[in-house]
Amino acid sequence: MSLNEYTGRTIELEVSRKTEYGYFLTDGEQDVLLHKNDMNRELELVEGSTVPVFLYVDSMGRLTATTTIPTVSVDEYGWATVVDRKPGIGVFLDIGLRKDILLGEEDLPVVESVWPEQGDQIYITLRVNKNNRIYARMATDPVIESIMVPADREDFNRNVHGYIYRTARVGSWIYTAEGFKGFIHESQRKREPRIGEKVEGRIIDVKPDGTVNLSLLPRKQEALGEDADIIMEYLDSRNGAMPFSDKSMAEDILERFGMSKGSFKRALGRLLKEGKIYQEQGWTYKKEQESSEE
């Protein structure tokens, strides 16, 4: 088996000879350079000894060895950090090597707005193309299912966080810190999260197979507070009076406040109960403002 077939994998090779650039390693038939810049500086090698190395192709297209063993390799999955994003090309990932690995645009969503950004985390493996170049490949559903931890009913309503590994208009799929595989329906998120983005949510359903459904929306009480704050901020921007009330049209409320009429009415009810507002002739006023506008 040619050493080229070990590209993207770890192999143990024999130290053949030392050069000014590092060491040549061999499998008995083919030599490969272990450059001094690809070595642990504390490592001392002698001819005839063996050393585990990871094989990859350098920027000149040459097969190269490194004593840095990444957590990800061909057929082995691990987490990688996004270090750069190039529109029309893909994103580059740090797996511990001197050379960053490309996750090409063909393996990413068509919509670039949900591509990973710097600092995002992606669960990947490596693939080698016909030119012996190494690329990243994202984990698929079956891979996530093979490592997932099944949730149980006691996990219902639990707060969790994790990383998005697949996303679409209908929803997003997440792998949580607990090892749960989860799905976030489009109705349970305010926006479509990026691949690799860390998100926090709560479990709203536990399926018989141990997978979970998550919501990224705040709990009703938390949302009520946010909606009430939005209304008060709008009142402040209009000197304490606005031409909206619980009788306003749903589409007008959605356009102005970005919330449903039900959410708007609940927030108004809270503010009325707290004595912060009052309503008169289809208008809403801050409590301290007693005069109405024409």
UniProtKB/TrEMBL annotation:
SMART domains: S1. It comes from the Bacteria. One of its GO terms (molecular function) is nucleic acid binding. It holds the Pfam family S1_2. Residues 157-217 form the S1 motif domain. Transmembrane segments: none annotated. Belongs to the CvfB family. This is S1 motif domain-containing protein. The lineage of its organism: Bacteria, Bacillati, Bacillota, Bacilli, Bacillales.
